[in-house]
Amino acid sequence: MKTAAPISPNDAFTPVRSVRLYETIIEQIATLVQNGRLTNGERFPTERALQEKWRVSRSVLREAFRALEMQGIVESRPGGGRYLRAERIPHPAELRVLRLTDNRETLLHIWQVREAVEVKAAGLAADNASRGQLAAIGRPLRMLETMTPEAYRRGDVNLDFHSAIARASGNPVLEQVILNLLGRFHETGFTDLPGPEDWTGLQADHQPVYDAIAAGDPEAAKNAMAAHFESLRRGLEDNDR
Fold first, then answer.
1. Between vectors from CA 183 to CA 15 and to CA 166, what angle results, nearest 5°?
2. pLDDT values of the chain reduced to their tens digit, one per residue, 241 residues
3. Which residues of 209-225 are buried (b: 16+ CB within 10 A; e: fewer)?
4. How far is residue 124's CA from residue 212's CA, in Å, rounded to a whole number?
5. Residue 12 DSSP one-character state
């Protein structure tokens, strides 16, 4: 069984500074393979060594490997390390398409449940949001004014917006349900769905929700959230055709 050579200061590892860290790690692994630093059948260096060289957390590193393992590119052996099982590493964009195709039905199911509970949360937030909570809901929208579409797709601004509304609902049980669903939705690949150009209209979708909550109008808030979900659900279903 072949094992990769020990890491030295001259190896092709550079610190990761991207917002979407796990994809940057995949790109660096691809570079190692292209340059012959890592070949099919070789064992990867330890997690600790990779964490030190790439300066990322264990969770981010594991997210990158999980994306590769799902496509059979990397084999993980309990207690035995990880091994490369491919001649090339697909570009992250290719992996996103594969991941989304595999998970589309699950995304739609989670989406249906999210719509039901988040419409309710928006109405409650219109009744219960404090000044601080309202500011937290509006903060992601202000960020969108200066963020590029690609930066938006790489970040968690959408997650921040919906999480802030859940917290402002005043119902801790509903909040936890929504946060759990948001986590599952993110893991399943929602952020892999749209191309960067599709994010440019999301501020227009979110703004009516914020405005209705800020105005203390529960019915308007619920209607705006329902319209937001309907718009993006159509996009998800269109990509399934």
1. 120
2. 444 444 444 444 444 433 467 888 888 899 889 898 999 999 999 999 999 988 888 888 988 898 898 888 999 988 889 999 999 898 877 776 666 666 677 778 888 999 999 999 999 999 999 999 999 999 988 887 777 655 655 567 888 999 999 999 999 999 999 999 988 877 665 554 554 444 556 678 899 999 999 999 999 999 999 998 887 777 666 555 5
3. bbebbbeebbebbbbbb
4. 11
5. S
* Distances from the Cα of 90 to the Cα of 33, 34, 102, 235, angstroms: 11, 11, 16, 25
Angle between helices 131-144 and 157-168 (to 10 degrees): 160
Secondary structure of residue 97 in the 3-state scheme: helix
For helices 157-168 and 202-214, angle between their N-to-C axes, nearest 10 degrees: 20
The owner of tokens 């590193």 is: 61
Radius of gyration in angstroms for the set of CA atoms belonging to the chain, rounded to a whole number: 21
Domain residues of the chain, as ranges? 21-84, 100-238
Query: Domain 21-84, what architecture?
Result: Orthogonal Bundle (1.10)
Tokens encoding 219: 């019915």
What's the rounded Cα separation, in Å, for the pair 34 and 38? Answer: 8
Among 88, 57, 59, residue whose Cα is nearest residue 71? 88
> 100-238: which CATH number, 1.20.120.530, 1.20.1250.20, 3.40.640.10, 1.20.1440.230?
1.20.120.530
In this prediction the pTM is 0.60
Yes or no: say if 43 and 2 are a contact pair by the CB < 8 Å rule. yes
